[in-house]
Write a structure and sequence with these properties.
Blueprint (H helix, E strand, L loop, with lengths): L1 H22 L4 E9 L2 E9 L1 H22 L7 H7 L4 E3 L2 H16 L9 H4 L12 H7 L8 E4 L2 E4 L12 H15 L4 E6 L2 E6 L6 E6 L7 E7 L2 E7 L4 E4 L2 E4 L15 E6 L2 H14 L1 H10 L4 E8 L2 E6 L7 E4 L1
Bound molecules: flavin-adenine dinucleotide and magnesium ion.
């Protein structure tokens, strides 16, 4: 009998210690990395470890849900079906129509510099096999590139011609980041970040000294070009140094001028800071196509949006920033 009592006391003691440890677990920054959206994604949550782990897994599951709908790479995703349909009108979910409507707004705002129908050309590039369509092929593809030839009505996408293809690669990462941050905020997380291949949202409601991050050096992979400090903002960069190859002295990359069908080559990197990652993502791509002057004029005309633009001349890198950007800038290396 005595032995039994000891066992029960011991068990109660162990349960007591575990629950005290769990209860007094200190919150810290829990970080988890996984591969999705064609890149490495990091979710960082400042919370007690057990809860942080659960929330990080739910955040990844949420992002995977959107990847399955919006990827042009996954057979039978909605975007894949839009691009392979032999009909002019295709049923789409509210998420896809929401994002296509947002894309259309940005296309109008940027006079067509941002245009998801470049998918017709993007889907024929291969930056692993160093393939970019030649002039004759571009000439054939260009008639399908025009955002005014698609429209969303109710729960369908209407394509003026069946051959039109879309590519949400320039806006969907930002859109998915915003959905993830919305989820974390609903779970009352007030410190952490989401990093999707360098496109980030940095969440920190109650810490004055902000997050310090680097802008990737566009011509020196391991180096940082500038460091900035931000809080509760998204920071998104578009650059010609990730998906590219050089042939006959020309850099072929994945940010396409919808008017010419060729890679936009005035700039080498555009970083946009905004409250919403979706807007930052699309504007970084658009400004990259618009070039320095038109791009900066556009950014300076929109409140609470800032940009840091890098271009190359005679092998020398130059930079310019929007009027309000210096409040984030720590230094340029
Ligand atoms: P940004 O500068 O933000 O945008 C460039 C991208 O936008 C281009 O890659 C093209 O997609 C598009 N674009 C180019 N020019 C224009 C223009 N003028 N207007 C509008 N859009 C333009 N990559 C993989 O390799 N495999 C995958 O399975 C894969 N799945 C993905 C699933 C989703 C849901 C998303 C959002 C992306 C996925 N990606 C995948 C990555 C994707 O193909 C792009 O490479 C990536 O989104 C480019 O992001 P970025 O910020 O580097 O480029
Ligand atoms: Mg982007």
């Amino acid at each position: 009998m005595k032995k039994r009592t000891y066992q029960i006391i011991l068990l109660l003691l162990i349960i007591g210690i575990i629950s005290i440890r769990l209860f007094y677990q200190k919150p810290n920054l829990y970080r988890k990395v996984d591969y999705l959206l064609g890149t490495y994604v990091e979710v960082a949550i400042y919370q007690k470890p057990k809860r942080a782990r659960i929330l990080a897994d739910s955040t990844f599951n949420l992002m995977r849900k959107y990847e399955k709908i919006l990827s042009s790479h996954i057979p039978n995703s909605e975007v894949y079906n839009i691009n392979h349909s032999d009909r002019n009108s295709i049923k789409i979910s509210s998420e896809t129509s929401d994002l296509i409507r947002k894309s259309e707004e940005i296309s109008k705002l940027t006079s067509g510099a941002f245009d998801i129908t470049v998918g017709k050309i993007c889907n024929r590039c291969d930056f692993v096999e160093n393939f970019y369509p030649n002039q004759a092929e571009i000439k054939e593809l260009l008639p399908y590139v025009d955002y005014r030839k698609i429209r969303v009505s109710n729960d369908s996408l209407y394509k003026e011609s069946k051959g039109i293809e879309i590519d949400l690669g320039g806006i969907a990462k930002g859109y998915i980041i915003d959905k993830a941050i919305e989820f974390l905020r609903d779970e009352e997380i007030d410190k952490g970040f989401i990093n999707v291949g360098g496109d980030m949202f940095l969440l920190d409601n109650n810490n004055p000294d902000k997050w310090k991050i680097g802008i990737q050096h566009p011509r020196d992979k391991g180096e940082i070009f500038a460091t900035i400090s931000v809080n509760n903002k998204s920071v998104v960069t578009s650059g010609d140094y990730e998906r590219y190859f050089i042939k006959d002295g020309m850099r072929y990359h994945h940010i396409i001028n919808p008017k010419t069908g060729m890679p936009a080559n005035d700039l080498v990197s555009v970083t946009v800071i905004a409250d919403k990652a979706c807007l930052a993502d699309a504007l970084s791509t658009a400004v990259f196509v618009m070039g320095l002057e038109n791009g900066l004029n556009l950014i300076d005309s929109i409140p609470d949006i800032d940009a840091f633009i890098i271009w190359e001349k005679n092998d020398k890198l130059n930079y310019k920033m929007s009027d309000g950007f210096d409040r984030y800038l720590i230094d340029v290396k």
